[in-house]
Design goal:
single chain, alpha/beta, Spore Coat Polysaccharide Biosynthesis Protein SpsA, Chain A, 7-stranded mixed sheet, 8 helices, 15 strands, globular
């Protein structure tokens, strides 16, 4: 099983961070949020990644190209130009870094990435490079394979941005700082897909995965929902990033499912 990660957008809603780096490289706890997402998948045995690059994609390439060096103890002999690695804490990951265009939309990026699936890859995971969750990825994959449809989307109910009051008259009987939004289930951005979804993608870079492809899959009865009641949080704004950083610092990062 491979995971395709869409990591090429501009991240304009968090411009305070993305003016100098791509959004997936914005750090939580000293590591890019992209790394956190990959750790979530790896905990469920998904260790091969296809990362769709766009805006400032060279920074993601450079990060992983030098990743082993940054994670190891090394001795560098400047005279001879040799390097000895004494300790290597890198993960057992295989990563394909694919330039999918600076202005390409999500469906166009997915279409370009599909060529990096292997011949035996009947299905694969897809997600965005800016959201974390304690999602049971293994459960989502098992559910997808059990129903036989072309696509599975994780359905989540996000926390409300505002506190809610349980009132009887003017008496507050209960207060919830961040209750679950009762507005219904939304697209949580974690998909499991049959590779035949390629037929739903147009040949244009303007193809938006969340529009015609998903709408057609739904209309044809080929889209099922895997319901996730646990933690889920996108990093859309600076406030989101600060909240995630605070959770990490307090050791309350619900998405940290690895040891």
């Amino acid at each position: 099983m491979k995971a395709i990660i869409l990591a090429g957008g501009l991240g304009t809603r968090i411009a305070e961070e993305t003016s100098t780096r791509p959004k997936p490289m914005v750090e939580i706890g000293g590591k890019p949020i992209l790394w956190h997402i990959m750790k979530i998948y790896a905990q469920h045995g998904v260790s091969e990644f296809i990362i769709c690059l766009g805006y400032k994609g060279y920074m993601i390439k450079e990060y992983f190209f030098n990743y082993a060096l940054h994670m190891s103890d090394v001795t560098i002999d400047l005279r001879t130009g040799t390097t000895n690695v004494h300790r290597n804490d890198t993960e057992d990951w295989k990563i394909s870094l694919v330039d999918t265009g600076s202005d390409t939309m999500t469906g166009g990026r997915l279409r370009r990435a599909l060529q990096y699936l292997g011949e035996d890859d009947k299905d694969f995971c897809l997600t965005y490079g800016d959201g974390v969750s304690d999602l049971d990825v293994s459960g989502a994959i098992e559910f997808h394979r059990s129903h036989g449809k072309k696509a599975t989307v994780t359905a989540v109910r996000p926390a409300s941005r505002y506190g809610q009051l349980a009132l009887v008259g003017d008496t507050v009987e209960a207060f919830a700082e961040k209750p679950v939004d009762e507005g219904g289930w939304i697209n949580g951005g974690f998909f499991v897909l049959d590779r035949s979804v390629s037929r739903y993608l147009s040949n244009s870079d303007e193809c938006v995965w969340e529009r015609e492809p998903l709408e057609r899959l739904a209309a044809e009865g080929e889209l099922r929902s895997y319901f996730h009641d646990g933690f889920w949080q996108p990093m859309d704004t600076l406030r989101d990033r600060q909240m995630l950083e605070g959770m990490w610092e307090r050791r309350e990062a619900a998405w940290k499912i690895w040891a």
